[in-house]
Amino acid sequence: MFFTKAWNFIKKNAFYIGLVVCVLAIGTISVIASLPQPEDDPSEIVDNTQGENLQDAQEQRDDEAKPSKDALSGEASKSPEPTKTSNTAKTNVNRGSATVSLTKPLEGEIITSFSGETLVFNSTVNMWMTHNGIDISAENNTEVVAALPGEVSSVVNDDSKGKIVEITHTNGAKTLYAGLSEADVEEGSKVNAGQKIGTAGTPAFESDKGPHLHFEYSVEGKFKDPTEYFA
């Protein structure tokens, strides 16, 4: 009975019911359309922003790490040039004479050079031997002077080498003057460079060379070429 009445009501008012349904549908659609659209996920925006910031920071660090052309040219210009050693400096090193200067014991021609460990022939004694000093030609009784200041360590009268004077100097250096005809100093005497110590003569073991002075210079027992140390 109830359903029959309801059905009759619907048939009589179908137009109005349909109209109401349409209005409600349109209203519902309008309401939905008017609702604010969902915005982007804030976390995604933050992540994107952070990603962009990280990328910018990395690019900035890369730019700072790259040296500029000016910096490269500046570094190149600051590179020190290799030091050039002059010939004079090399000579001083080789000679070792930077702090030693010998006074020539007498003026004259060097007739026999320093040989070091090389053997040279001595025609007087007819044998090969080393020549640990130099021979300077001179007239008999030519004045002989000390090459360096020091103390006379020995005065010897040798049958083959004549009178021999040895002077000890600082730093283990010694000078020897052989073939003297006379010695004007005694053992223990203090002498200055250029001071007379005797006179030249003719040593028996080198008599073929005539009057001359045999002069030796050594440091801590090692013989040196005196000509490399003459002032």
Overview of this protein structure:
- The protein contains 5 helices and 12 strands.
- The chain is α+β, with helices and mostly antiparallel strands and about 230 residues long.
- The protein has a domain at about 100-230: Glucose Permease (Domain IIA).
- The strands form 2 sheets. Strands 1, 4, 5, 6, 7, 8, 9, 10, 11 and 12 form a 10-stranded antiparallel sheet that branches.
- A hairpin with a 4-residue loop joins strand 2 and strand 3 (about 125-130).
- It starts with a helix and ends in a 7-residue tail after the last strand.
Keywords:
32% helix, Glucose Permease (Domain IIA), alpha+beta, two-stranded antiparallel ribbon, 231 residues, 5 helices
In short:
This protein has 231 residues and is an alpha+beta fold. The chain is 32% helix and 27% strand. The chain has helices at residues 2-12, 14-34, 42-65, 69-78, 87-95; strands at 110-112, 119-122, 127-130, 134-137, 143-145, 150-158, 162-168, 173-183, 190-191, 196-200, 212-219, 222-224.
